[in-house]
Specification:
With 311 residues, the chain is an alpha/beta fold. It is built from twelve helices and ten strands. It is elongated, with a radius of gyration of 21 Å. The model has no long low-confidence stretch (mean pLDDT 88). Keywords: Phosphoprotein.
Length: 311
């Protein structure tokens, strides 16, 4: 897939800097005012918008307010660029649906951070038909919180943000995240209501479904874990009345690698983690699609942070 980034700015040097920064990974489209941007959006599919906040005519914030009322374009992530951010402007932009702020000084001082923000935003731009409005809003809040935490660079905090956010979206009764190294697993996150947890929860590497994940490299959903060939902690699930399970493997691949491979995990990428969710309410296919895609794609962020923390 050819990912397109639309840059809206009346300052020509900004276009030059961003094109040089992004040209090896993305197609960059240029608009020098909001009307030019609207004309481009009417003709081309765009994955991300980078918009200046101060422009003649319609400002970046006014453009953001208008695009959020356009049914066909309101889901495009918008990153607001500015030289002089203020708390008031940032809050107004977030209230209008901005994905984040980028300080223009970073285009000179920390180009890799700008690239990371753009990659993260495209990787986490997951659009699922059939979500109710409440789930969609919770998903958007989780994506924003995930980016905020990831930008700080903490691997463990980002794992916790992902787990807590998933619990809020789909109301799991049990959620666990395990790191996987050399066919061994280590529990890093445990979120469970009423502090319920299975025996031997720290290690899942001996269970049959662990071998299945290594072999298939595919997420799965079951709504009857008791008699299914798939499922972790079956005895625990029976005891706690938890027939529904979603399990998603995460792989050793960064956001850049995932984007360059059209959001597909390469066949030779090793499994790097497992995220497991259980509840009594049966999972819908829409929930499975949301969870599996969100974890697979945000897993690339976790892997980059993990590598950075252990380099």
């Amino acid at each position: 897939m050819n990912y397109k980034v639309l840059v809206i700015d009346d300052d020509e040097p900004i276009h030059f800097m961003i094109k040089n920064l992004l040209k090896n990974e993305f197609t960059v489209l240029n608009a020098h005012n909001v009307q030019e941007a609207i004309d481009i959006l009417s003709e081309k599919d765009v994955n991300l918008i980078l918009s200046d906040i101060h422009m003649p005519g319609i400002s970046g914030l006014e453009f953001l307010e208008s695009i959020r009322l356009d049914e066909k374009k309101k889901k495009i992530p918008v990153l607001i660029m500015t030289n002089l951010p203020t708390i008031e402007k940032e809050q107004k932009a977030y209230d209008l649906g901005a994905a984040d702020f980028i300080k223009k000084e970073l285009l000179n001082n920390d180009r890799e951070r700008v690239l990371e923000i753009i990659r993260m935003k495209i990787v986490t731009d997951i659009r699922i038909t059939g979500l109710d409005e409440d789930q969609s809003k919770k998903k958007d809040r989780l994506v924003m919180k995930l980016m905020e935490t990831a930008i700080s660079g903490s691997f463990s905090d980002t794992v916790e943000t992902l787990g807590n956010g998933l619990n809020e979206i789909i109301s799991n009764k049990f959620t666990g995240f395990w790191m996987v190294q050399n066919d061994q697993s280590k529990l890093l996150y445990l979120g469970s209501k009423n502090s319920i947890k299975p025996d031997n929860v720290t290690d899942i590497s001996g269970q049959k479904s662990f071998e299945l994940l290594k072999e298939t490299k595919e997420a799965y959903m079951t709504n009857h874990v008791f008699n299914d060939e798939k499922g972790f902690f079956v005895d625990f699930s029976k005891k706690e009345d938890l027939p529904a399970e979603i399990t998603v493997p995460l792989f050793a691949i960064s956001e850049r690698e995932l984007l360059m491979n059209n959001m597909n995990v390469p066949a030779d990428a090793p499994m790097f983690g497992v995220l497991l969710m259980k509840r009594s309410v049966l999972f819908s296919s829409t929930e499975f699609e949301l969870v599996s895609r969100l974890i697979k794609q945000s897993g690339s962020i976790l892997y980059r942070l993990y590598k950075k923390a252990n380099s």
